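step=predict obj=3-dehydroquinate synthase n=352
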Amino acid sequence: MKSIQAATYSVHFEENGYIKLSNLMAKKNYSSVFILVDNNTLECCYPRFMQNFTTNAPIEIIQIEAGEIHKNIETCVGVWNVLTELGADRKSLLITLGGGVITDLGGFVASTFKRGIDFVNIPTTLLSIVDASVGGKTGVDLGVLKNQIGLFANPEIVLVDPEYLHTLSAREIRSGTAEIIKYGLTYDITLFNEIKNNTELNIVDLIHRSIEIKNEVVFEDPKESGLRKILNFGHTIGHAVESYFLESLDKESLTHGEAIAIGMICESYISSKLLGFPTDKLSEIKETIINIYGKVEILPEDFESIIDLLKHDKKNIGGNVNFVLLNTIEDFKLDCKVPMDIIIESLKFYNK
């Protein structure tokens, strides 16, 4: 796959990615290298990485617990302390080897340690490959509120090796597929049609185009003042649902993609009510997503708590909940204000 040039870094693929990483190491002459992993990627991904990575700099592994529940400032403090204890300096490099949690948290840790050290993203899940590793967003959750603390910071390079996807469960592949569906609905219908029409689809074939889309959007609007907001489609309700299931003791937590899939159904419904989004396309979206993800039970008594979490979404301005909605596929409208009764209707529509 051909490399993709972002504003200040490049996304490199497969063997070429490891070559570019070696070139970076030689050029920058780092004093030490720290590899951030979780317990899953240490076992499943670290051995492959080390087979393809050589450096004369000393290497240290920093391991954190896997899961969104650990994507918080307390984990950051732990990593900052380990970096300090192991003698990391401003010429050290942090390599993030993992999924969205590792990528988001690791970039934030690197960008704030000693006012910023270099980092390299090596995403190992479909979600982190097509979304979290690209675009320069870093951060952690505040309690159950998603990505409330963070900053924009770019890696030196992103290295995408699809071989790491073989370590994932089918559920994790489905989770990442939600972000590709989002790109299809907002930006390039070809991606949505490929997923909708091909049950034997090799999802790796859609990776390059998905990263291209995110890069095009971020290149035009790096700080999310306009176009980049389309990347939030499905995420306004989706993040609230994800947070609610994460904090509920009597519910199984959802993956990010599962929650965003619910959000896309709800926000497509809202689009039909407020912008006249075609009902046949709404049905098509709901049917496609349910076929992939199945149904999650969202009880009427859950609605109020989900709405409360929605009010804390980081994209809100002046107390207003801001949505990205669709006039039709590939035709969006930003900063839409939605009445609470329509939001509740959308949750009921999902439940039908």
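step=describe
Residues 256-275 form the longest helix (20 residues).
step=end
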